[in-house]
Automatic annotation (TrEMBL):
Pfam family, one: FecR_C
Domain FecR protein, first and last residues per copy: 124-206
Gene3D superfamilies recorded: 2.60.120.1440, 3.55.50.30
Domain Protein FecR C-terminal: 251-310
Full protein name: DUF4974 domain-containing protein
GO molecular function ontology, one term from the record: sigma factor antagonist activity
Matches recorded under InterPro entries: FecR, FecR_C, Ferrdict_sens_TM
Length: 323
């Protein structure tokens, strides 16, 4: 066998360990010269290195420098003439190593994760950057596994985000007709085929249509809305921190109608709350429920408005004026 054919021969044998014919040829070659086992071992070490590559970025310059240092420091008993085999092995296998590292890195960059929320009331998810998301059942999120751009796509449903602050990179939530950009904050976003609305608990966000640079700035308790058909973005009047309560168990109403309060509590506790007299729904109250049960919340409303609460089934309550 010619010296220039040795590299290809060894690589072919290492790549097909189950090929009996090639393995026999390899054994015959090892017996031809006392230096051949050492040459094979050098190739085998490089070959095994390709299976131990990390999935993060591979630094080509550093890798080549390490390879050079390894060949200089290694005290090999090989004859000077056979040192060329080591460099031939490096020349053949280093591109394999680099291509494998590149493929692993870009595979991870392109790999998407789709998460569908489970549970009866809400689900939660930790994103790769440490941010936390609470999701209504059935809500669908999608994001890149590498998460280098800190972008999440809300495909459907409703989610509350607690975003880890990063001054160097914004956090973005996109839907098919709107986008929300933040540095570090907590906010609720709900999307449908007709509109997307965003309510801020703390911090500041910018709501725009289809990643447009124009939009509205939202601060705590404010809410913005994007029309899916016209792309119009508007900032709504009023206090909307209660829209976040289903996720953080802190439901705050500031001069809201009883109708809004009951609808919100019905959604959170999965019950039906109604009044015997519909005029009661127009009465405004200011109240905050933090980490309390439905019965405790109803007791507070009852005392505030002098009402009677009748439970007509396991999941239905009627509020009436006291006689």
């Amino acid at each position: 066998m010619k010296k220039e054919e040795v590299s290809g021969f060894i690589i072919a044998c290492l790549s097909e360990p189950d090929n009996a014919a090639k393995q026999q040829q390899l054994q015959d070659w090892l017996l031809e010269d006392e230096t051949h086992p050492a040459i094979l071992e050098e190739y085998r070490q490089l070959w095994q290195a390709t299976a131990q590559l990390p999935e993060n970025d591979f630094d080509m310059a550093t890798g080549w420098e390490n390879l050079q240092q390894a060949t200089v420091s290694r005290q090999s008993p090989l004859k000077t003439a056979y040192r060329r085999y080591w460099w031939k092995a490096a020349a053949v296998l280093l591109p394999v190593i680099l291509m494998t590292a590149w493929w692993n890195h870009h595979r991870q960059q392109g790999e998407m994760v789709t998460y569908i929320a489970q549970g009866s009331l809400k689900d939660s998810l930790h994103l790769p950057d440490g941010s936390k998301v609470f999701l209504r059942p059935g809500t669908v999120l999608r994001y890149n596994k590498a998460f280098e751009s800190r972008t999440v796509e809300l495909q459907s449903g409703e989610a509350f985000f607690e975003v880890v602050k990063n001054e160097q990179q914004r956090f973005t939530v996109t839907v098919f007709h709107a986008a929300v950009e933040v540095l570090g904050t907590s906010f609720n976003i709900k999307t449908s085929t007709e509109y997307t609305d965003v309510a801020v608990w703390d911090g500041k966000v910018r709501l725009s249509a289809d990643n447009s640079r124009q939009g509205v700035i939202l601060t705590p308790a404010t809410m913005g809305k994007v029309d899916a058909y016209t792309g119009q973005v508007e900032k709504l009047a009023g206090a909307f921190e209660y829209r976040c309560g289903w996720a953080n168990n802190d439901v705050s109403f500031s001069n809201q109608s009883l109708g809004t309060v009951l609808n919100t509590l019905s959604s959170i506790y999965q019950v039906r709350l109604r009044t015997a007299d519909t005029t009661l729904l127009q009465e405004n109250i200011t109240v905050r429920f933090k980490n309390i049960t439905l019965n405790e919340a109803l007791a507070v409303i009852r005392e505030m408005l002098d009402l009677k609460v009748d439970q007509v089934s396991s999941a239905e309550y009627i509020l009436k004026k006291m006689k």
